């Protein structure tokens, strides 16, 4: 199992493989956890006849090997984003960058759920958000998983290049079940509450000056069927005054058979 994962990673995510190829502890953890997942799945198939398998990096690698073009394109995209972050990170943060990549491998459920929960996307979102901010040319990454004075942590600490002002950024992933979305108003009420609850939890106990430079960046994962509702939500987003950035989402664009990805971040950290 471990060697198979190494081979597939080297083929479909060559840069990711390059930065973790000698970290045997990562390969051991991934292969052991995935073997556990397969063993449990075997029992479920015997008892229920089938399983619902959520996507994860090991699953996508397997699909790519089977010839699935969507998986190949997505893995290529992820690999390019990992490379950009690693190349952009200062030397002292290289190891923490590798830690973010480790999450992509290890975040999957060993027991299949009634509704697949692709938790590996949470790590993808963190990489996409920080890359978007760095690519803007306005910010420099200072730290990953920076401790806060209230005993919690923020995903990133940034410096604004023009003023040297520092900002904390926390990425908040929201996975939406399209089937449960009936209209815009209910969607807005649900998402707003999730975001506000997360912001309150993260900033509780922070002093005023720290809270002023703490920003929450929501990332919404949903299907195509609610694209119009998600667009309307973004256009009517009303939580910016609370240091909450406009929500982001990852969109796949098909241009004459070639897949492109766009990750939205409409307003940067002030």
Weakly predicted, low-confidence segments: none
**Roughly how many Å apart are the termini?**
46 Å
Per DSSP, what share of the residues sits in E-state strands of 2 or more residues? 15-25%
> What level of helicity do the residues show?
40-55%
Count every beta strand, where a strand is a DSSP E run of 2 or more residues.
6
Q: What's the story with the biggest beta sheet?
A: 4 strands, mixed
> How would you write the strand order of the largest sheet?
1-2-3-4
Number of helices: 10
- CA gyration radius, whole angstroms: 19 Å
Order of helices and strands: HHHHHHHEEEHHEHEE
- Shape estimate: globular
What value does the average pLDDT take?
Answer: 88
Structural class: alpha+beta
Q: What do these coordinates show?
A:
This protein is α+β, with helices and mostly antiparallel strands and 270 residues long. Helix content is 50%, strand content 17%. The strands form two sheets. It has a four-stranded mixed sheet, sandwiched between helices. Strands 5-6 form a two-stranded antiparallel sheet. A hairpin with a 2-residue loop joins strand 5 and strand 6. Helix 1 packs across helix 2, helix 1 crosses helix 4 and helix 6 packs antiparallel against helix 7. The termini are far apart.
């Amino acid at each position: 199992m471990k060697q198979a994962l190494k081979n597939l990673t080297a083929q479909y995510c060559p840069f990711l493989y390059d930065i973790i190829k000698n970290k045997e502890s990562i390969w051991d953890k991934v292969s052991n956890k995935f073997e556990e997942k397969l063993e449990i799945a075997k029992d479920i198939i015997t008892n229920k006849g089938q399983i619902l398998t959520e996507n994860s990096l090991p699953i996508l690698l397997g699909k790519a090997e089977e010839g699935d073009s969507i998986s190949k394109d997505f893995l290529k995209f992820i690999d390019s984003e990992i490379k950009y972050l690693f190349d952009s990170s200062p030397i002292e943060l290289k190891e923490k960058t590798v830690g973010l990549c480790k999450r992509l491998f290890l975040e999957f459920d060993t027991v299949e759920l009634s509704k697949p929960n692709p938790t590996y996307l949470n790590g993808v979102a963190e990489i996409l958000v920080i890359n978007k901010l760095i690519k803007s040319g306005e910010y420099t990454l200072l730290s990953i998983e920076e401790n806060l004075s209230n005993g919690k942590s923020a995903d990133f600490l940034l410096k604004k290049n023009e003023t040297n002002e520092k900002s904390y950024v926390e990425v908040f992933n929201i996975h939406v079940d399209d089937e449960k979305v009936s209209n815009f108003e209910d969607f807005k009420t649900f998402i707003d509450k999730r975001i506000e609850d997360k912001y309150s939890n993260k900033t509780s106990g922070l002093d005023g000056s720290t809270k002023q430079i703490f920003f929450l960046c929501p990332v919404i994962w949903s299907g195509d069927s609610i694209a119009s509702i998600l667009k309307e939500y973004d256009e009517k987003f009303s939580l910016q005054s609370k240091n909450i950035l406009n929500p982001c989402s990852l969109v796949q664009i098909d241009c004459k058979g070639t897949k492109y990805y766009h990750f939205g971040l409409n307003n940067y950290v002030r």
